[in-house]
């Protein structure tokens, strides 16, 4: 008796009724609707949390009267200056300790020691040293950035394939040639990882710095809103923080796509 | 074709860049009393070696016999040595793994480390010579194993070496690609006329390519045979079969009866 045959159905033939992206957006949308309904029916008082509708209105008001754009500009500026400062320090230290044994012995132990101090705990000291102006906020951001970049760039440099260094040697590259053509490009993936971590830390440091004391920026809006129980403004500020963080991440991803296209394990398109 | 300036591979203690003009005109390699020890164990033990300019020498040996160490010494990559080692200033190495810089496109890999600022055309010429002119702009990750090895060869050849050092360059290639790559190396050698020292553990490869096959054992060149046959060679050639048995015997492997081959 011959066996009963059945067709192997190709995967593409299985119809999906609802596209994936739609299914994925349904959850958050339902949550938003639930929030709006709770606010409208009074289950969720506006003193606790403003309704999504109110928040959208507030956001558009703050955008129109220029308060929000100005605050964003001030905050982004702080992050950029802190990032640049911490970036230069972190990368410079990583190069010193990554490229030479002497540098490693001198720098690495100190950096590892300082790294174990929680940087948020430095705030009181920074205020005593630098007052309550822009300086302590930028210093806090720079501090958080420095360690991430240092660790990742240093690990990147030390992780460069020794076989490639040897190949460079056999091709007649000198010390600087090796650093330029082999070591630094090889450390780039690590540096990009470090940049990503540092950006996340930079936003966190910004929130800490601005919440404690600020007369300008998003943190200032946030603090003032707290005093007047404006939960709508608070939520708008939180959303702005999140959006700026996402934007920064997007920029780093784009950079990675441009700079790391040679990587064998790169899969993005 | 005479090999020009010879440069001594210095052991680190006496690194002074001293150059030695000696009477060894026409030699590509001159090694006297070379010893290289790892933790007191001599892997190369008082080794002597002469390679005339333009000769194709294949170095055979079992794993761990020191053949790769010898190649690294000649390449100047291992300088913890005692003895006298003279090699041409212009030498190039191709390793078992292609060791292309993954962050440089193929043509930039080829030009890496060349003095001056050579243009892209120089790389294109070298890549054309190895049959890779269609992958000039490719990233190394997109090359097949054979293509990557050819790029590595182009990178070595573009330096116009008087001595080409090949460390099992076909070891990681599949059997079919290996045959093509061997033919390519033979062609390039005939065209360039540089001395070649190729390290391998493949006896047939040695017999197909070499003017002279050296067997390394116990830290010295323990045995050598001359292969006086025109190229391209056929591995079924009775002389080669005879030499193959001899070499395998030297390497401590009993060759199968020739009859077994003919059955297939």
Automatic annotation (TrEMBL), chain A:
Protein name: ABC transporter permease
Lineage: Bacteria, Bacillati, Actinomycetota, Actinomycetes, Kitasatosporales
Domain ABC transmembrane type-1: 68-252
Pfam (any one): BPD_transp_1
Any one Gene Ontology cellular component term annotated for this protein: plasma membrane
Keywords from the named record: Cell membrane, Membrane, Transmembrane, Transmembrane helix, Transport
CDD domains: TM_PBP2 (cd06261)
The family this protein is said to belong to: Belongs to the binding-protein-dependent transport system permease family.
Topology of the protein relative to the lipid bilayer: Multi-pass membrane protein
GO biological process: alkanesulfonate transmembrane transport
Listed Gene3D superfamilies: MetI-like
Localization in the cell: Cell membrane
Ranges that cross the membrane: 79-102, 114-132, 138-157, 233-252
Protein's organism: Streptomyces antioxidans
TrEMBL record, chain B:
Comp. bias (Basic and acidic residues): 1-17
Transmembrane helix is among the record's keywords: no
UniProt region (Disordered), positions on chain: 1-27
Domain annotation ABC transporter: ranges: 29-243
Pfam families attached to this UniProt entry: ABC_tran
Nucleotide-binding recorded as keyword: yes
GO MF entry, a single one: ATP hydrolysis activity
Keywords per UniProt: ATP-binding, Cell membrane, Membrane, Nucleotide-binding, Translocase, Transport
Name of this protein: Sulfonate ABC transporter ATP-binding protein
The organism of origin for this protein: Streptomyces antioxidans
């Amino acid at each position: 008796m011959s066996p009963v045959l059945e067709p192997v159905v190709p995967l593409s033939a299985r119809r999906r009724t609802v596209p994936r992206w739609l299914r994925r957006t349904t959850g958050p949308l339902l949550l938003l609707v639930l929030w709006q309904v709770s606010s409208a029916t009074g289950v969720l008082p506006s003193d606790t949390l403003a309704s999504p509708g109110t928040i959208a209105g507030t956001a558009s008001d703050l955008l129109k009267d220029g308060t929000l754009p100005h605050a964003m500009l001030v905050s982004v500026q702080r992050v950029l200056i802190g990032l640049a400062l911490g970036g230069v320090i972190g990368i410079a230290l990583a190069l010193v300790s990554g490229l030479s044994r002497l540098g490693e012995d001198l720098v690495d132990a100190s950096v590892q020691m300082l790294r174990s101090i929680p940087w948020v705990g430095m705030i009181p000291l920074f205020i005593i040293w630098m007052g309550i102006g822009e300086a302590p906020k930028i210093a806090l951001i720079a501090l958080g950035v420095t360690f991430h970049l240092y660790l990742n760039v240093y690990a990147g440099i030390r992780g460069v394939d020794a076989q490639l260094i040897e190949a460079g040697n056999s091709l007649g590259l000198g010390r600087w040639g090796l650093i330029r053509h082999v070591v630094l490009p090889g450390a780039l993936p690590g540096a990009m990882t470090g940049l990503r971590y540092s950006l996340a830390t930079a936003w966190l440091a910004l929130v800490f710095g601005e919440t404690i004391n600020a007369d300008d920026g998003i943190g200032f809006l946030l603090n003032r809103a707290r005093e007047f129980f404006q939960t709508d403004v608070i939520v708008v500020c939180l959303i702005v923080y999140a959006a700026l963080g996402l934007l920064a991440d997007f920029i780093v991803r784009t950079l990675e796509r441009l700079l790391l296209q040679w990587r064998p394990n790169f899969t993005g398109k | 074709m005479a090999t020009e300036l010879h440069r001594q591979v210095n052991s680190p203690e006496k690194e002074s860049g001293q150059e030695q003009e000696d009477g060894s005109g026409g030699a590509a390699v001159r090694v006297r009393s070379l010893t290289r020890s790892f933790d007191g164990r001599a892997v190369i033990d008082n080794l002597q070696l002469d390679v005339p300019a333009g000769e194709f020498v294949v170095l055979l040996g079992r794993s761990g016999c020191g053949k790769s160490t010898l190649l690294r010494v000649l390449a100047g990559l291992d300088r913890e040595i005692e003895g006298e080692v003279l090699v041409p200033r212009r030498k190039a190495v191709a390793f078992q793994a292609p060791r292309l810089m993954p962050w440089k496109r193929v043509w930039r890999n080829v030009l890496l480390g060349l003095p001056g600022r050579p243009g892209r055309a120089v790389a294109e010429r070298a890549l054309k010579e190895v049959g890779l002119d269609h992958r000039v702009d490719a990233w190394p990750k997109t090359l097949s194993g054979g293509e990557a090895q050819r790029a590595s060869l182009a990178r070595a050849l573009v330096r116009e070496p008087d001595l080409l050092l090949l460390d099992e360059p076909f070891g990681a290639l599949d059997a079919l690609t290996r045959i093509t790559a061997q033919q390519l190396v033979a062609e390039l050698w005939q065209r360039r006329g540089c001395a070649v020292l190729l390290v391998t553990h493949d006896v047939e490869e040695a017999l197909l390519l070499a003017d002279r096959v050296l067997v390394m054992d116990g830290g010295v060149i323990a045995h050598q045979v001359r292969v006086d046959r025109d190229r391209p060679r056929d591995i079924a050639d009775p002389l080669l079969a005879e030499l193959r048995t001899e070499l395998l015997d030297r390497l401590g492997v009993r060759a199968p009866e020739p009859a077994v081959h003919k059955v297939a």
